[in-house]
Structures are given as C-alpha cells and as structure tokens.
C-alpha cells in the first residue's frame, strides 16, 4: 500500500481586497474532506517559532497568494524551505479574464466560481506533489 | 483631520473563530462604518511591509483575535502600533453559550450570529475612538 505524504497549504487570507477571500476560500475548499492536507494561519506561521515552521520544513507545502506581493510564498521560503508550488490568484484571474471581486466578506457569482476553480487546481497540484513524493 | 480606525482581524483559517473575526471586521469596515473604519492585511504587516507598519504606527488600532495565540494583538504591538481595544471571539462565544459555530469556509447560522454580535461591539468601539480623536 502506498502511503500518501501530508501536504501543507498556506493561504494569504489578505484582508485588503477580495483576492484574499478567494485564496482563503479556495484553500478551505481544497482541504475539506482531505486527511492528507493541512493548513496553518499565515500570521501564526510568520510570527511563530520552530514548531510553526517545522511542518513546512518537513513536508511539501503549497503557497496560495491573493496578490502579487506573494506573502505566503515568501514566508514559507524564508522560514522553512522553497514551496513545492505557488498559486497567484490575481494572475490566474487575469489569465481567465475574471474581474476581482468587489466585496471582501462574501463571495458570489464569478468570485465564488473562481474560488472553486482555484480549489480544483489546488487539488490537482496536491495530487501531483503526492505522486512525486 | 480624523483618521479611520484600523480594525485588524487574525483571519485564522483552521477554525470558525478566525472566520468570525474576519467576517465581523468586514461588516464594520465595509457595511457599518465605511470611512470611519478600515483594515489592512495582517500578514503584510507581519512581513514587515513599510507602508503597513507606517499605517499601524500612525493609527488607532483595534485587534480582533480568534484564538489564544492572539496573532493580531501581538503583531500590531510588535509592529509599533498601539492596540486601543482588543476583541476576542472566545469572549463573545462565552457570552453566547447557546451558539456553536462549526463551519470555517462559509459561516453557518451560529457563526453569522456571532459575527453580527461581534461587529456591533466593534462598531461601538470604533464610534468611541473616532469621537476621541482631535
């Protein structure tokens, strides 16, 4: 029996705009029902110590960032190791021709669809990394 | 000239409490007191972004934390900001023992109720701090 390795997913959850809401919702959707993926709050990861940083050092971790500042990616690279993959929500929306959501509290319409689409992409990346690992 | 009060939630992603902190903050900043209250990315602040640090240092801040790690309150202070008020979702939960939020991705009915209660408390504090500004 092949044991799949645990994968970490760290999302930015940026409060400045709806892109952070998409990154957060997509991450949660990808993690729901999966025993092989775990997440950690980015502020806790950033402010944390060895315990918080050790998971991303020992396991492949994916960064999900809302905007081009790439806080999640940079944080994982700085405190643990280079992320196994990175998702840039703003770049994907631009590529797909989807407008950034106006609201931050709730996602509706195209914003919600984009979150589901990114979650699917995230699941594919998780499976790819598990295969390689 | 008065400056918007900065409301900074932890936005924790592992439990519903972080989602409630975030939801309540957006209720205040976008719906209840737009213009009087604003927020910024906590992660950007913790990353040491100069603009975020400048805003925090020059504003009256309200921290909203979901769990006992208190990432928002601690990091606002570490970044040179002064926490004028600190709200904890756990306290709101203790005051409303009948409510049991479970969902994290999208708040369930109890999570929504707690978010509204918390948002009302934050709004009252925003008004108080706004009036206190010269």
What is the class of chain A in the CATH system? Alpha Beta
Would you tell me which CATH topology of chain B applies? Rossmann fold
Helix/strand-derived category of chain B reads alpha/beta
- The total strand number of chain B stands at 4
> Quaternary state, please?
heterodimer
| CATH T-level topology of chain A | Rossmann fold
Q: Please identify the top-level CATH class of chain B.
A: Alpha Beta
Q: Sheet bearing the most strands of chain A, described?
A: 4 strands, parallel
Nutshell version of this structure?
Chain A is an alpha/beta fold and about 130 residues long. Chain A is about 55% helix and about 15% strand. In chain A, helix 1 packs across helix 6.
Question: Secondary-structure map with pairings?
Answer:
The complex is a heterodimer of chains A (133) and B (134).
Chain A: E1 7-11, H1 18-31, E2 37-39, H2 42-47, H3 50-58, E3 61-65, H4 71-79, E4 85-88, H5 89-96, H6 109-132
Parallel strand pairs in A: 1-2, 1-3, 3-4
Helix pairs in contact in A: 1-6
Chain B: E1 5-9, H1 16-32, E2 37-38, H2 42-46, H3 50-57, E3 60-65, H4 71-78, E4 82-88, H5 89-95, H6 109-132
Parallel strand pairs in B: 1-2, 1-3, 3-4
Helix pairs in contact in B: 1-6
């Amino acid at each position: 029996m092949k044991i799949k390795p645990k994968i970490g997913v760290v999302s930015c959850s940026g409060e400045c705009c709806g892109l952070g809401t998409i990154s957060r919702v997509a991450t949660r959707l990808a993690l729901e029902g999966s025993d092989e993926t775990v997440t950690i709050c980015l502020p806790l990861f950033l402010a944390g110590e060895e315990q918080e940083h050790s998971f991303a050092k020992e396991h492949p971790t994916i960064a999900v960032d809302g905007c081009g500042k790439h806080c999640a990616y940079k944080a994982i690279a700085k405190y643990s190791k280079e992320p196994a993959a990175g998702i840039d929500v703003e770049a994907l929306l631009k590529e797909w021709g989807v407008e950034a959501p106006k609201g931050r509290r709730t996602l509706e319409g195209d914003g919600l669809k984009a979150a589901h689409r990114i979650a699917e992409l995230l699941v594919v990346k998780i499976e790819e990394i598990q295969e390689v690992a | 000239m008065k400056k918007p009060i900065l409301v900074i939630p932890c936005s924790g992603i592992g439990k519903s409490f972080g989602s409630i902190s975030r939801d309540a903050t957006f209720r205040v900043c976008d719906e209840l007191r737009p213009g009087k209250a604003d927020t910024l990315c906590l992660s950007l602040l913790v990353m040491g972004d100069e603009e975020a640090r400048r805003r925090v240092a020059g504003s009256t801040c309200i921290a909203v934390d979901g769990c006992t790690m208190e990432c928002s309150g601690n990091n606002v202070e570490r970044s040179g900001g002064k926490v004028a008020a600190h709200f904890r979702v756990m306290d709101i939960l203790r005051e409303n023992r009948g409510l049991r939020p479970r969902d994290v991705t999208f708040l369930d009915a109890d999570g929504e109720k707690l978010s509204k209660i918390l948002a009302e408390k934050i709004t009252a504090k925003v008004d108080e701090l706004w009036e206190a500004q010269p």
